[in-house]
Amino acid sequence: MEEAGNVPMSKPSAGKTRTTELAESAWAVVLFCVACGAVAGALLPLLARLLLSLPWAPLKGPAELLTSVPEPALTLGTITAGVLAGLLLGFSAVHDSLSVRVGDTHVTLTIRDGSQEFAREEISALFRDGKQLVVLAPSGMELAREHCGLPWHRLAEALTEHGHTWAEEDPYRAEFRRWVPGTPGLPPGADALLRARARARKDEDSAEETRELRGELLRLGVVVRDEGQRQYWRIVSG
Which structural domains are found in the chain, ordered by start? Predict the structure, then answer.
């Protein structure tokens, strides 16, 4: 889905303050999800028949029920269901997509129903960490870390054109240590938060809780980053 969203919309403003806005194409994201849903729906009857042809396979009951529907109603029905599921997924993806407005004096991140605006003097650098955009403060604190589906080269160009610093990697990357339960050197309460966060990350429905726990760790001066299921941490000095 990230590939479908890599269609930037650059909108320089006509006002006194020069700005550039980059956002994923909502139509491209939705159409991509609908197309995937339609293909999945078209393949579902074929997969059900293939499942029934195997000597042993799970879910034969639902497969028999599905294939009992006569054609072409079966294929048309599964395609329609796939399209509707794709629409829902597409609208959800658009709602969760990140847009970035870059100005000479500010950078604004908008995602879901909220925005975060950072003045130039609050930012030391912005960089890519995997699929996430990170905004870094002069103190080393992370101001924001958001999933980003924008073209990275275009985002980097827009930031540098407006005088902001784009880093090729995290300037503090070498300071991160892998977390294991009971790791020494953490502030009081941080280990418990990292334990809770590790549990939350195993549950796909706990993304908001994972996000909140990251915020709690930042309040303790602990920056956390993820690699797979592993958590890495560093202390913000000063």
Answer: 12-22+97-167 (2.30.29), 26-95 (no CATH), 173-235 (no CATH)
User: What pairs with residue 234 in β-bridges?
Assistant: 223
Count CB-CB contacts under 10 A for residue 27.
12
Q: Is the pLDDT of residue 155 over 80?
A: yes
Sign of the torsion formed by the C-alpha atoms of 87, 27, 13 and 136: positive
Residue with tokens 């159409």: 31
Q: What is the mean pLDDT of residues 60-87?
A: 83
- Spatial separation of the C-alpha atoms in residues 172 and 175, rounded to whole Å: 6
- Give the list of residues 6+ apart from residue 25 with CB closer than 8 angstroms, or none: 4, 5, 7, 9
| Per-residue pLDDT tens digits for 10-43 | 444 444 568 899 987 666 767 888 899 889 988 8
pLDDT tens track for 209-232: 999 999 999 999 999 999 988 999
Question: CA 1 to CA 75: how far, in whole Å?
Answer: 24
**Contact present, 5 and 25 (Cβ < 8 Å):** yes
How far apart are the two ends of the chain, measured CA to CA in Å?
40
Distance (Å, whole) CA 152 – CA 133: 9
Q: Give the orientation angle of helix 73-95 with respect to helix 60-67, to 10 degrees.
A: 120
Q: Does residue 222 contact residue 231 with C-beta atoms inside 8 Å?
A: no
Cβ neighbourhood burial of 159 (10 Å; 0-12, 13-18, 19+):
buried
How far is it, in rounded angstroms, from Cα 4 to Cα 27?
9
